[in-house]
Specification:
The chain has one domain. It contains eleven helices and two strands; from the N terminus they run ααβααβααααααα. By secondary structure, the chain is mostly helical.
C-alpha cells in the first residue's frame, strides 16, 4: 500500500508534518494508552529516590573544594546543588519511561517529580549496590516498554499489522539498537569526562589564563554536544521505521539533518516550544489530583502527535533525497550512453 509520504512530490514541511502527526493520532487514539498507563503508574507508585546517597557524594565533593579557585568553585557549587535536587526529587522508577525511545511521560520530567503520590510514599536509597542493581534492571525494562510503543507507532504509520511476527521481530530489533545507542552515549560521555578532567588539571596549573582556556574549551564542547544531539535526533526513528542497524540509522539521521538543517531546526524548535509551553499549563493544573489526570492525558496527546510528526518528517525528507539521487543516477546513466 502506498503511503502518504510516497505519494508526495515534495517533502513535508514543518507545519505539515505536525498537522499530519495530529491527524494520524486522531485516527489512532488508542496509541495514547501506553504512555497514559505508564504515567498513572509513576504517579500512584512510591518515589524511589537516591537522596541520602547523593548527599553523601555531594558532601565529599564539597570537602574537595578547599584548593579550588573561587570562579571554578562557584560553578561546582551550582552543579552540586542540581545534583542534590535531582537526588531528592527524581524517582528511579522514571527509568521505565524508556531512555531515548521518545515515549511521552509527564511524570518522568524532573520538575514533576515533586508532585506527591496519593497512594505511595518515598523510598530513599542509600546503598550503592542497591541503586546499581535497580538501575541495571529498570533501564532495559524501560527501553523494552518504550521500544514496544515506538514500534507500534512506526507500524501504524507504515500500515503494517500490529502484534504480528514481524512486529515482535522489529520490537526486539529496536530494543537491541536503542540499548547499543545508550551504551555508545555512556562510553562517549565517560571518555569526554576523563579528557576534560585531565585537561582541567593541566590548565588550572596556569592560573587565570588556564581557567579561561578551560572555560573556552567547555563552551566549545557544549556546542559540539548540542550539534551532535541535533544530528542524531532521528536515529531511533530510523531504526523503528526502516529496520536498519545503529550505524545506518546514525548515517541516515545525519544525512536528513545535514541536508535539511534549517527545516530540522525549525521543527525541533517548534516542538520544543509546544512541549515546554504546555508543560507550564500542566504544572499549573497539577496542584489538584484531577488536574494531574488531565495533564497526563494532555501531555500524552501532544507527545504522541509530536513523535508521529517526527517519524513523518524523517521519512519524508529521507525518501525525497533517495528519489532525487535515483533521478540523478538515471540521468547520468542516460548521458553516458
Amino acid at each position: 500500500m502506498q503511503t502518504l509520504i510516497e505519494a508526495e512530490d515534495k517533502p513535508l514541511g514543518v507545519i505539515e508534518s505536525l498537522q499530519q502527526g495530529f491527524n494520524f493520532l486522531n485516527r489512532h487514539l488508542w496509541f495514547l494508552i501506553p504512555p497514559v498507563l505508564l504515567d498513572l503508574f509513576l504517579w500512584l507508585s512510591p518515589r524511589v529516590t537516591t537522596g541520602p546517597l547523593v548527599n553523601q557524594l555531594v558532601a565529599w565533593f564539597e570537602a574537595q573544594q578547599a584548593n579550588v579557585q573561587d570562579d571554578l568553585a562557584q560553578n561546582i557549587e551550582v552543579s552540586l546543588a542540581f545534583m542534590r535536587q535531582l537526588g531528592e526529587t527524581y524517582s528511579l522508577l522514571s527509568l521505565l519511561a524508556g531512555l531515548l525511545t521518545r515515549i511521552p511521560s509527564l511524570m518522568a520530567r524532573i520538575e514533576f517529580q515533586a508532585i506527591p503520590s496519593p497512594m505511595g510514599g518515598v523510598i530513599a536509597l542509600d546503598n550503592v549496590q542497591t541503586v546499581g542493581i535497580l538501575v541495571a534492571v529498570l533501564i532495559p525494562i524501560g527501553v523494552a516498554l518504550g521500544s514496544f510503543w515506538l514500534t507500534m507507532v512506526a507500524f501504524g504509520l507504515l500500515h503494517r499489522p500490529l502484534f504480528s511476527f514481524a512486529f515482535v521481530r522489529r520490537w526486539g530489533w529496536v530494543w537491541l539498537n536503542v540499548n547499543l545507542f545508550l551504551l555508545a552515549i555512556f562510553l562517549a560521555a565517560l571518555g569526554m569526562s576523563f579528557v576534560m578532567s585531565m585537561f582541567a588539571v593541566i590548565t588550572l596549573m596556569f592560573g587565570n589564563a588556564g581557567l579561561m582556556l578551560y572555560s573556552i574549551a567547555s563552551i566549545l564542547l557544549f556546542g559540539f554536544i548540542i550539534w551532535l544531539g541535533i544530528g542524531l535526533y532521528f536515529v531511533v526513528f530510523a531504526v523503528a521505521l526502516d529496520g536498519v542497524n545503529l550505524a545506518r540509522a546514525v548515517w541516515r539521521s545525519l544525512n536528513v539533518v545535514g541536508r535539511n538543517a534549517i527545516s530540522t531546526l525549525g521543527f525541533l524548535l517548534l516542538t520544543f516550544l509546544l512541549t515546554e509551553g504546555f508543560a507550564r499549563i500542566w504544572s499549573w493544573l497539577s496542584i489538584r489530583d484531577w488536574g494531574v489526570v488531565v495533564s497526563i492525558f494532555g501531555h500524552a496527546y501532544l507527545g504522541v502527535a509530536i513523535v508521529a510528526a517526527s517519524f513523518l518528517f524523517y521519512q519524508s525528507r529521507y525518501q525525497h533525497w533517495r528519489k532525487i539521487r535515483a533521478l540523478v543516477m538515471v540521468s547520468q546513466s542516460d548521458e553516458s550512453h
